[in-house]
Amino acid sequence: MSVFIIGDVHGCLNTYLSLLDHWDPKTETLVQVGDLVDRGNFSPSVLQLAVELKKNFKKEVHYIKGNHEQMMIKYLIGKDKQKNWLFNGGQLTLHQFDMLNIDPGNYLNWLMDLPMVWENDAIKVSHAGLSGIGNPEDPNNPDGYLWNRKPLIKISKLQVIGHTPRWNGKPEFNPDSNSWNIDTGAYGGICLTGIKLKNDGTFLETISVPTDERDIGKIK
């Protein structure tokens, strides 16, 4: 099986569905780099889709935790005293749950169980990458897997990350760290990107779909 890795979705359901049309579950493992929620118009539906895909394709589908999932978790368990999540897209997400009469707490356990890393012998996928500073799995480490903005260190595996948008709409390969950043600003009206790799990390192709206007405009 090859690997199809998808960047930050941020509530852009229709865009995500368009990109999933390029996934073949019979031949490709699907990995998503985190930040399913916030910013876009359909965070609850994106979460519902993720849960269903993971349920139906247990071995073929893998979701990892992003910093927006971590902020949502912290808010839902009552530890977000400064309400940082609400100022980073959470208020819109809560409104979307309210409009659908769905309790966001229904997803709490699923979100908490998300791993921070997916990897095989040649590829390591995390939300923000390995900086080499502090414990990468500490959810409060600003240079860890959830929050890092510093340059990545080069390791024995190809790293694939999201987190820091590429506003030119083009994923970037950095040979110095042997890494890909595939966040191409879906919530900002640019595009959502997926990268296909062989299991050994060999590049196959990049697929980007423009952001669907329904995902970011005002809902009529």
UniProtKB/TrEMBL annotation:
Residues 64-69 form the Serine/threonine specific protein phosphatases domain. SUPFAM superfamilies: Metallo-dependent phosphatases (SSF56300). GO terms for cellular component: cytoplasm. One of its GO terms (biological process) is RNA decapping. InterPro entries: Ap4A_hydrolase, Calcineurin-like_PHP, Metallo-depent_PP-like, Ser/Thr-sp_prot-phosphatase. GO terms for molecular function: bis(5'-nucleosyl)-tetraphosphatase (symmetrical) activity; phosphatase activity. PANTHER family: METALLOPHOSPHOESTERASE, ZINC-DEPENDENT ENDOPOLYPHOSPHATASE. This is Serine/threonine protein phosphatase 1.
